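Colleagues,

For the teaching module next term, I've prepared a clean inverse folding example: a structure given as tokens, and then the sequence designed for it. I'd like students to try predicting residues themselves before seeing the answer, so please don't circulate the second half yet.
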């Protein structure tokens, strides 16, 4: 009968060491592949956002900065709070750059909408003075402040290389994501196809947009208290939790180390998110 082969202690240590090295290599390869995939997605997404908003920055440098911030804040959060804090810091570092770019895009769109009525009045005056539509758009691209001048510069650049003006204006509408441009594009397209007094149409449209902006300003002022209450509702529980953690760290640490503490934090986060969503729906009124 064959005898059973039993590994000696040196052989067992060698096998265990080889398995550990194999596990480390597999984990390193998986981590490298994950980081490479995230880097590619991050650079492509952020690069498109920076390009559309005329922000001069290197997406690869921003990725390196976000990765360093992820490591720093993740380590600090893990040391202060535990695994939950590290996960939260990782989510913030991952989503943060996209949120910053999206916020800048919203501010740029709001500024564009604010500048649009004056630009339409200037375009209507240029048409009454004898200029054609292309010359009027050139005046907007050269004399109006950014971001409106930047967008119309793109429209004229595309028109000069042979693209249809209607298509360029439609792309500008897609970039800015604002319904106010639908009215302007419709007026220009109808005027170019069937004729009519485009100057009077643009003048009337500008007055309408000014009234709309005036009403939105009133609504914004009246709902500012509701938005402030939403911030208070969101920040106050975090502040109270921080104070309690400083006063009774042993008891509060159970919230971050035990499964029932994580369950309570999940319920709290869900309720706070629901409250913030409801407040946002109440105070956000479309005109």
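(Answer key — instructors only)
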């Amino acid at each position: 009968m064959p005898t059973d082969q039993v590994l000696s202690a040196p052989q067992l240590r060698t096998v265990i060491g080889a398995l550990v090295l194999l596990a480390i290599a597999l984990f390193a390869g998986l981590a490298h592949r994950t980081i490479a995939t995230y880097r590619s997605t991050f650079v492509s997404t952020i690069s498109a956002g920076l390009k559309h908003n005329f922000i001069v920055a290197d997406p690869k440098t921003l990725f390196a900065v976000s990765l360093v911030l992820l490591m720093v804040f993740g380590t600090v959060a893990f040391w202060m709070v535990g695994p939950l804090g590290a996960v939260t810091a990782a989510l913030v570092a991952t989503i943060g750059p996209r949120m910053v770019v999206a916020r800048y895009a919203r501010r740029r769109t709001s500024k564009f909408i604010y500048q649009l009525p004056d630009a339409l009045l200037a375009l209507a005056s240029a048409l009454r003075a004898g200029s054609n539509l292309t010359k009027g758009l050139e005046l907007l691209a050269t004399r109006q402040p950014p971001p409106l001048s930047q967008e119309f510069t793109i429209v004229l650049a595309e028109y000069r290389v042979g693209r249809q003006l209607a298509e360029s204006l439609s792309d500008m509408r897609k970039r800015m994501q604002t319904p106010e441009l639908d009215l302007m594009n419709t007026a220009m397209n109808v005027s170019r196809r069937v004729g009519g007094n485009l100057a009077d149409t643009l003048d009337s449209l500008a007055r309408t947009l000014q009234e709309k902006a005036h009403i939105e300003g009133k609504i914004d002022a009246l709902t500012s208290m509701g938005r402030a209450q939403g911030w208070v509702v969101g920040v106050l529980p975090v502040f109270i939790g921080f104070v309690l953690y400083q006063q009774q760290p042993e008891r509060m640490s159970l919230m971050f180390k035990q499964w029932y503490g994580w369950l309570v934090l999940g319920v709290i986060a869900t309720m706070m998110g629901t409250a913030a969503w409801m407040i946002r729906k109440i105070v956000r009124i479309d005109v």
